[in-house]
Amino acid sequence: MSDIDVDFFLKTLKQLTTNSNLDFVIDEKHQLQFLEEEIKYLRGFLKSTEKKRNEHLEVMKLVKQIRDVVSEAENIVELFVSHAFKADVSQLQNYKKKKNKKKKKKKIEAIREHQKHLSLDLKSVKGEIKTLTAEVKKIYDQNMYDIIME
Known about the structure:
Keywords: ATP-binding, Nucleotide-binding, Plant defense, Repeat
GO molecular function: ATP binding
Mean pLDDT: 83
Protein name: Disease resistance N-terminal domain-containing protein
Strand content: under 5%
Distance between the termini: 21 Å
Number of strands: 0
Shape: elongated
Pfam families: Rx_N (PF18052)
Largest sheet: none
Order of helices and strands: HHHHHH
Structural class: mainly alpha
């Protein structure tokens, strides 16, 4: 994953948290916002190190770890969203042709209920992100490697 890919993922998260009124997104909004804020901070570090990252092995390793964890988070979010949309679209298509409005409404409610059981499981990346954020904070606080927060 490149720095540009991190930017695109941040835009996706922003769109999900600000422009979406889909139930399955609303239910997970707090996790998506957490992810967006933490990745924004880590993206700032990537930007701060663009010119100096190849000078220090520790910084190079940290940059790689950040990119890897952001890529993993992106995969988890994409999988969650695609599963939710897939469940919604496929089940709605089956019931579009039904003339009975009561049955149709009931089915839509069932689909929404199913979506509530879909959960965004970020446990695996949350810990990694917090660890990386702490490392970045330490670098900034101790002014290590002459890296200054932008």
